[in-house]
Amino acid sequence: MRVLVVGSGGREHALIKKIKESPKVDYIACCPGNGGIAYDAECFPVGATDIDGVVSLAKEIKADFVVVAPDDPLVMGMVDALNEKGFATFGPKANAAIIEGSKVFSKNLMLKYGIPTAEYKVFDNPQEAIAYIKEKNEFPTVIKADGLALGKGVIIPETFEEAVAGVKEIMEDKVFGASGNKVVVEEFLTGPEVSVLAFTDGKCVKPMVSSMDHKRALDGDKGLNTGGMGTVSPNPYYTEAVAKECMETIFLPTIHAMNAEGRTFKGCLYFGLMITPKGPKVIEYNCRFGDPETQVVLPRLKTDIVDIFEAINSETLSDLAIEWDERACTCVIMASGGYPKSYPKGIEITGLTDGQLSGVTVYHAGTKQQDGKLVTAGGRVLGVTALGDTLEDALQKSYDGVRQIHFDGAHWRTDIGARALAAK
Ligand code: AMP
Ligand code: GLY
Question: Quick check: pTM over 0.90?
C-alpha cells in the first residue's frame, strides 16, 4: 500500500512511525511534513489546507490511502474532495468535522441529546454577551470563540473587566477572524482533565488508552496556554468506573447523536473531558487525533493501525480487537525560546543522529533540514517520547533524552507527569 499523510507536526510523525510498522505498507508520503518526518516518509511541499494540491499529489503518487490529520483541512472538506476522486481516506467528512469546527454546533448537540457538558449560552452580539456575564456575575467564567482558533479561542476571565475585554477582542477586534462571529459563554467547571481519543466507524466506538495533556507553558500549570507541552498515558484519573460512565453517558450518545443528525462521524473522535464532582463532562470535541496526545497513545497500540483504518472504512470496526501495550508512555515537548509568544526560527539542533536518539523516540514538530543541518522551524520543536514499565521509568527516559538534545533558547516543562504521579 502507498499511504499519504497530510500535516506537519509531532502528531503526524507519530502516525507515520506507526503506519510504517504495518507489513501492508511499502511507501509513505507526507505533505508538507518536517525535518524529522523526512527520515520516515517522502515529503512534498504541498500545504495541509491546499485541497486541490493534496488531491493532485494523491493522484501523482498513486496513493491507496490518505490520512488527513489536522483539523482545518477536515473542517474544510478535504476528505469529501478525496473521496469524490475515489481515494480511500481516514478522517471525518466536513459535515461531521463540524463537531470541532463549531463550538455552537457541539454545545447545541450536547444539549439536544443530553450529553453532560458545562451550562452555556450562545451570543452573536457582544453587548448581549456582556449583559449576560454581568447578570450572572460568576467568575471565573469561560468564553469560547465559535470557530477554529489554533487552540487559542478559549478565555477564562477572572473579573468582569477581563470578560468585557475578552468579548471585545473576539467579537469586535476579531482576533480569531470569522471564528469570533459568535461566542459561547459557559460555566467554569473544575476537576482533573482527561483526553480520550476514540476510533469510530459510526456504528461502534473503541476508545484508545487515556492520556493527560499539560497545556500551560510553565511548571505548576502556570504561564500561557500552548498547544500542549507534554503528555502522559495512561491518565490515572480515568479509572475503569469513569471509563464505563463515559462510554454510557458520553461516547455512545455522541456517536448516536451524530448519526441522528445525518452527520455520521468516521475517524478519530477526541473527547476532552473534565472529571467534575458531578461526573465526567465534555469540555471539547476534536475531529482528529490530539497533539501531543497521539505521541503517547500510538506507541502503546499493538494492533496494525492500517487494519483499523480499513475496518473504519468498511464499517466493520466492531469485528476488530484492538490491543494495547500495558506500559506507560510519556512525551516531553522541547519548545523554542519565547513560545507560545513569538520565537526565533532556524536555530541549529544538536544531539540527534538522523533525527533520533537511542533510548527514546523523538517526534519532530517544528524542525527543518537546511544545508545538511537540522534546525528549528516552529514553536513546539520536538516531542521526546519513551515507554516504561512505570510512569516514573518512562519519565526518566524522556528527561534523559531531553538533556542530550540542544538548541539555543530551548525550554521545556520539568514537571510533566507530576500530577499523574501525585494522583496514584
Ligand atoms: P478547549 O480549547 O475547549 O479545550 O479549552 C482549553 C482549556 O480551557 C481546556 O483544556 C480547559 O483547561 C479550559 N476550559 C475550557 N472550558 C472550560 C470550562 N467550562 N471550565 C473550566 N475550564 C475550561
Ligand atoms: N492537545 C490538545 C489538542 O490536540 O487539541
Answer: yes
